Amino acid sequence: MPLSVRLDKKTETLLHKTASILNTSKTEVIKKSLSEYCGRVLLENQKQPYDLLKDLLDRGGSGRGDLSSRGEEILREKFRRKR
């Protein structure tokens, strides 16, 4: 399926250099780039809320006795540190 795309000069230069280094066509670079980018976006979109937070949540016991009373405060602090 034919598709036309207008590129700015910087992107066009980047595309040309990449195709030259890989010894392939600009079309192939564009196809592969779009496939990889779209694949990442779709994969990220399919993640469940737990998948997005699992690196912030402790596994196993925390050893803390104040989680029931300060849970929200502790989680907010973890978010602040992640940023």
Task: Give keywords.
83 residues
Can you walk me through this structure?
- The model has no long low-confidence stretch (mean pLDDT 86).
- The protein has helices spanning 9-22, 26-45, 49-53, 67-82.
- Helix content is 66%, strand content 0%.
- Helix 1 (9-22) packs across helix 2 (26-45).
- It has two domains: 8-45; 48-57 and 65-83, no CATH class.
- With 83 residues, it is mostly helical.
- The chain contains four helices and no strands.
- The longest helix has 20 residues, at 26-45.
Strand and helix map with partners:
Blueprint: H1 9-22, H2 26-45, H3 49-53, H4 67-82
What's the structural domain tally?
Answer: 2
Q: What is the gyration radius calculated from CA atoms?
A: 22 Å
Work out the helix count.
4
Q: Could you tell me the strand content as a percent range?
A: under 5%
| Cα shape | elongated
- Low-pLDDT runs of 5+ residues are none
Cα distance spanning the termini? 42 Å
Main β sheet profile: none
Rounded average pLDDT: 86
* Elements, N to C (H/E): HHHH
Helicity level: 55-70%
Q: Please count the beta strands (DSSP E, at least 2 residues each).
A: 0
The helix-and-strand class reads: mainly alpha
